[in-house]
Design a protein that fits this description.
This protein has a 6-stranded mixed β-sheet, with helices on both faces. A 4-stranded antiparallel β-sheet has the order 2-1-4-5, with helices on one face. It has 2 domains: 1-79 and 171-257, P-loop containing nucleotide triphosphate hydrolases (Rossmann fold), CATH 3.40.50; 81-170, Rossmann fold. The protein is of the alpha/beta class. The two termini are 34 Å apart. It has helices at residues 43-50, 73-79, 96-105, 111-122, 127-139, 155-167, 185-200, 212-218, 236-240, 243-248; strands at residues 5-14, 17-27, 32-36, 58-63, 66-67, 81-83, 173-177, 204-208, 221-226, 229-234. Bound molecules: adenosine-5'-triphosphate and magnesium ion (MG). The site of adenosine-5'-triphosphate has 12 residues, from strand 2 and helix 1.
Length: 257
């Protein structure tokens, strides 16, 4: 079977620091894959390389065999990869609905800020985008908040809003950088339900998180990074019992992290 996403010996250096060191892994359609590892292991950097936000120093990223290395973020988005951020990134002074509408514009060259500005001009004409955005909001349970300013949402709602924007591009693959970080138990349950639904709808997920409950419950396979290197790739249970992984997490404790 052809991999959906493949990283091929991806290395990314920042000056003398090698944040990601020769990491190769593959995901297949229908899979939820997780990337875990201690703080500073290179997880977010790897996401930044995959979605085109930064370039690999060496190595390549391929979507269904096609190299993404020379593509910009909006081009990667157009090919079907969207993402959420570890530190939630919404437009606080725009409504919830507009925040999702921006998602559709992210596939254009203008990018995140440009999309926001352009949206203000085009607001009136965009009935279709509006309807689509509303549908996506309903899928994450935020439709009743559509005309609220994003900055008035709770933190849990902000994470859902960001997910809704990522869904608005109708992606094949969503990269989730710590989707349940900072959420309380009920917000976490809501998020996990939505992620499970996404998977049932055929949207593939690649997820970074420190929440071992989440990772162990929802993912099919786990890649473990430590100081930029891939030290394991296995089933959730397999990595939990892997001696090298346990050592990497010493002090943090993977079994009950
Ligand atoms: N733009 C940058 N410039 C310089 N160093 C960077 C940059 N981005 C990341 N780093 C460094 O690269 C290493 C990996 O960082 P990264 O954010 O990818 O880790 P992470 O696994 O996502 O950690 P966490 O779990 O804390 O989010 C860290 O040492 C970090 O300081
Ligand atoms: Mg990170």
């Amino acid at each position: 079977m052809e991999p959906l996403l493949e990283t091929v010996r991806v290395t990314r250096a920042f000056g003398g620091l090698i944040a990601v060191a020769g990491v190769s892994f593959r995901t297949y359609a229908g899979q939820i894959k997780a990337i875990i590892g201690p703080n500073g292991a290179g997880k977010t950097t790897l996401f930044n390389v995959i979605n085109g936000f930064i370039k690999p120093t060496t190595g390549d990223v391929r979507l269904r065999g096609r190299s993404l290395r020379d593509l910009a973020v909006h081009q990667v988005a157009r090919l079907g990869i969207s993402r959420t951020f570890q530190n939630v990134q919404n437009f606080g002074n725009m409504t919830v609905l507009e925040n999702v509408m921006v998602g559709r514009h992210l596939m254009t060259r203008t990018g995140f800020l440009g999309a926001g500005l352009r949206l203000q001009r085009m607001r009136k004409e965009e009935k279709h985008t509006q309807r689509k955005a509303y549908e996506v909001l309903a899928r994450v349970g935020l439709d009743h908040r559509s005309s609220e300013l994003a900055e008035n949402l709770s933190f849990g709602e902000q994470r859902l809003l960001e997910l809704a924007r990522a869904m608005a591009t109708e992606p094949e693959l969503i990269l989730l950088d710590e989707p349940v970080s900072g959420l309380n138990e009920s917000e976490k349950t809501a998020m996990v339900d939505i992620l499970s639904q996404l998977r049932q709808q055929g949207i593939n997920l690649l997820m970074v998180d420190h929440d071992m409950d989440l990772i162990m419950n929802i993912s099919d396979e786990v890649v473990v990074l430590d100081r930029g290197q891939k030290i394991a790739e296995d089933t959730p249970r397999g990595v939990q019992n892997n001696e090298e992984v346990i050592r990497a997490y010493l002090g943090e404790g993977i079994r009950n992290a």
